[in-house]
Amino acid sequence: MTALEVACSECGLDPMCQVLDYSEQGSGVPPGVLLRRQPVMKGEKLFSVNQPFHAVYAIKSGSFKAIVPDMTQGERVVGFFLAGDLIGAEGMANRQYSYTIRALEQSSVCVLELARLSETGRSTEAIQGALIEMLGREVALNHLVTTSLIQQNADQRMAAFLISLSRRSVTRGFTSDQLGLNMSRSDIASYLGLARETVSRILTRFQNSGLIRLRKHNLKLLNRIGLEKVASSR
Q: For residues 185 and 234, which has the higher predicted lDDT (pLDDT)?
């Protein structure tokens, strides 16, 4: 199944794309400053941890995971990125990327080469305003994600994770109850700090309880109120 594309107006990169007139013909933006709908194959890396920063990526369709090396010479998942999300913006601060990004499915991205913005002919004020708006939106979204996952037990974490995916889907203009769960059970377990078997067991229990319906990578929230009760239970 082809991944859904996010509308430009719902994408985290849109404030800057508006300033650049989406690099359409006649915009005056030099080729390569804003690359649109670049295909990324499943398993392909966008960049690696500690690689020098050069661009910000916006997911047009598909999904990605962020990974870092862990103490056992393996990898730990530290985040998931979905259609509409920005990737790599934190690299602006220390001039290198903080994690490795790998595609979870066939995806597409828009790529903004920040170092070349001065070539576009746009005013510094317009560019700075777009950057502030763009990064402000991402801070708000990241706050939503992190606060929703500060939970105690395994069931709470899993319920909060699913609710967080639903909220992010709505933020990007998609439905709240139909979710693509393209990350593996192992990736979810790594992200939530749980065992893979625990993740599988909880998802099965949620399904048997009528909270969700899971068919391969397609998840439907059947009882959002019930999930919220699980996430907030003490």
A: 185
